[in-house]
Amino acid sequence: MIGEKIELEVLMEKMKFNIKSIDDKERKGIKKIIKERWNDKRIVYNGKVFYPHKLKGFIALKGKEIIGLISYKTLKNTYWIISIDFLFESRGIGTALIKTVKKEAKKNGIKKLKLITTNDNLSAIRFYQKRGFRLKKIYPNAVEKSRKVKPTIPKVGEEGIPILDEIELEMIVN
User: Fold this and answer.
1) What is the number of other CB atoms lying within 10 angstroms of the CB of residue 139?
2) 29 near 71, Cβ under 8 Å?
3) What is the CATH number of the domain that holds 63?
4) 3-state SS, residue 166
5) Residue 161 and residue 143: Cα distance in Å, rounded?
6) Which end of the chain is more exposed for a tag (fewer CB within 10 A), N or C?
7) How many CB atoms lie under 10 A from the CB of residue 141?
8) DSSP conformational letter for 31
């Protein structure tokens, strides 16, 4: 067991990955990842349904394996990040995905990146703020609206915090 831990630590230290635009051949794999990580192929914010595997975005690859993804939708000169998932934390995958979307936004004249998370997701809120996102709005009890569409959304999340509200974060693209 100790040997396995050391081997895993060495693997993590050497993790290198590439980022590329999502194309049709990866959509099935993305759908599988979303379903595993979100308990459904759909993501619901404020009662609206999104299918990340059908959206624009980028994937992080280690060899041919998808180890991270980000999907977004364009609305009123804003890229709304619908999902961001990475299989390994503290390896720069999430940061690289956000930087890639920001670079794409800048290239296309998009002025803002926005996303929504839930009130219990303290690690995500911390992650996003460290990367330049600012708290913009709170939607009280919005998760109840989303549960009507997707009843599998848990009632309790990180640290035993009841999942009730949605929090919008925003980054201005310079």
Assistant:
1) 18
2) no
3) 3.40.630.30
4) strand
5) 13
6) N
7) 9
8) H
- Domain annotation covers residue 6: no
Residue 5 forms part of a structural domain: no
Q: What is the pLDDT along the chain (174 residues), one digit of tens a residue?
A: 444 444 444 444 456 888 888 888 888 888 888 888 877 888 888 788 898 888 899 988 888 888 888 999 999 899 999 999 887 566 678 899 999 999 999 999 999 999 999 999 999 999 999 999 999 999 999 999 999 988 888 999 989 999 999 999 999 998
d(CA 131, CA 113): 12
Classify residue 143: in a domain, yes or no: yes
Q: Which two tokens stand for residue 122?
A: 């303290």
Q: Buried (b) or exposed (e) across 123-138, using 16+ Cβ within 10 A?
A: ebbebbeeebbeeeee
pTM of the model: 0.83
